[in-house]
Amino acid sequence: MERCEVAVLGLGAMGAATAYQLAKSGVKVIGVDRYHPPHTQGSSHGDTRITRLSVGEGAAYLPIVRNSHRIWRELEALSGESLFEQCGVLVMTSSPDYDAQDATDFTHRTLQLAHSNGIEHERLSAAQIRERFPQFSPVLDSAIGYFEPQGGYVRPERCIAVQLKLAEALGATLFKGETVTQITSDEQGVTVTTDQRTILADKVVVSAGMWSRELLGQPFDRLLRVCRQKLFWFELEEHARFAPVSPTFILHHGPGDEDLHYGFPPLPGEGSLKVATEQYSEASSPDTLDRTVSEAEAREMFETQVWGKIAGVTSRVAKSSICAYTVTPDGDFIIDEHPHLKNTLVVSACSGHGFKHSAALGEALAQWCVRGSSELDLSAFSLKRFDGQA
Ligand SMILES: Cc1cc2nc3c(=O)[nH]c(=O)nc-3n(C[C@H](O)[C@H](O)[C@H](O)COP(=O)(O)OP(=O)(O)OC[C@H]3O[C@@H](n4cnc5c(N)ncnc54)[C@H](O)[C@@H]3O)c2cc1C
């Protein structure tokens, strides 16, 4: 029987950050992961993740991402690794049915939040978007843009690797290639059973990503959906015109949830552009997730999301990958104590926008474990909001 103060179950984005922050606080921590993170089986691979201070998903996220930006820089100083590229972020709506009065429009919400929270930004017209960022010259004349110079992207695999390495250097014990099969709790603490050992912990943080449903039982099994997502890296045209410092971007080009794509500037030396869209209509599971990308899917992606929308990109696929979102009914996170397991905190239902917040959530969860509460107000992510929902 291994004993510790806190066991962190799942060492992806959320778990690596939590294990690091706990170890940094002097807590005796054990981390467990079924694979060897960073890996390509969960939700934290694919080279890059967008980060932005004006989080159009809601005001509750703003203090979290701010803390993450501070922590990425701290981690860079400690590790010497480059983790956070502040190349700016460009959010655009270029849709034939664009309604300038629609307050729910994502670009409007982002502009509004930046304005009311003093976040440095520019509002761009279609002409300004075309002039500054020629790759988006196809935007419609009615397009609007939000440019935030402090946004950009983080390197997910590096962030995870750095935090796990630092956690171990600070005394954390990490069991990799080991699967948690059961969690039970009583007055003695929380008992974690893995396929190789038993761990008795005072507290447990479950950060199991898309495997959370299976591990956590009710009510998570009815609240969480796993949605397969495709990532593509399309080769650039030989003389593609990109702004010298190109931003990460999000483009809404129609009214539907799936009428959007997001992407990243071409990474140095790669000659390709990473671009992806989102889908919420088909649910999957970790066991049945199809991890192959077909030629038809690549063709569809290019035709519906890239052709006529981003200039300078060919239909040739340099690379593709499958990743999964763990989605809640309202698209917001669940960060809360487990309703049936004592001393068990849950984080990981991050609906496809969690990486930018992960460093700060790790810090907040470590505080929660040590003193019973966190400096960040995480009440917006409590399970209570789903009470009574079928
Ligand atoms: C395609 C895609 C694009 C995204 N883009 C962005 C973006 O641009 N910006 C942004 O902020 N966010 C983005 N996200 C969301 C973000 O990446 C995720 O919210 C975040 O990475 C999820 O981290 P996690 O720790 O919850 O899950 P993971 O990183 O998947 O970690 C879960 C870990 O738990 C382990 N585990 C599971 N079950 C067990 C078990 N029983 N025993 C032991 N270990 C277990 C797994 O092996 C895994 O390592 C994107 C996600 C995807 C899929």
What is the average of the pLDDT values? Answer: 96
Just name the CATH architecture of the largest domain: 3-Layer(bba) Sandwich
SS strand fraction: 25-35%
Share of helical residues: 25-40%
Q: Number of DSSP strands? A: 20
CATH class of the largest domain: Alpha Beta
InterPro entries: FAD-dep_OxRdtase, FAD/NAD-bd_sf, MTOX
Keywords: FAD, Flavoprotein, Oxidoreductase
EC number: 1.5.3.2
Enzyme class: oxidoreductase
Task: Walk me through the structure.
The chain has 390 residues and is of the alpha+beta class. It has two domains: 2-67 and 155-223 and 330-385, FAD/NAD(P)-binding domain (3-Layer(bba) Sandwich); 89-149 and 225-327, D-Amino Acid Oxidase, Chain A, domain 2. 26% of the residues lie in helices and 29% in strands. The protein contains nine helices and 20 strands. The chain has helices at 13-24, 62-79, 106-116, 126-132, 156-169, 212-216, 220-223, 295-306, 355-371; strands at residues 2-9, 29-33, 49-51, 84-85, 89-93, 122-125, 144-148, 152-154, 173-176, 180-186, 189-194, 198-206, 225-236, 248-252, 260-263, 272-276, 283-284, 313-327, 334-337, 344-349. Strands 5, 6, 7, 13, 14, 15, 16, 17 and 18 form a nine-stranded mixed β-sheet that branches. Helix 1 (13-24) packs parallel to helix 5 and helix 1 crosses helix 9 (355-371). It is globular. It starts with a strand and ends in a 19-residue tail after the last helix. The model has no long low-confidence stretch (mean pLDDT 96). Bound molecules: flavin-adenine dinucleotide (FAD). Flavin-adenine dinucleotide (FAD) binds at residues 9-15, 32-35, 37, 42-44, 46, 49-50, 179-180, 207-209, 211, 215, 229, 231, 276, 323-325, 348, 350, 352-356.
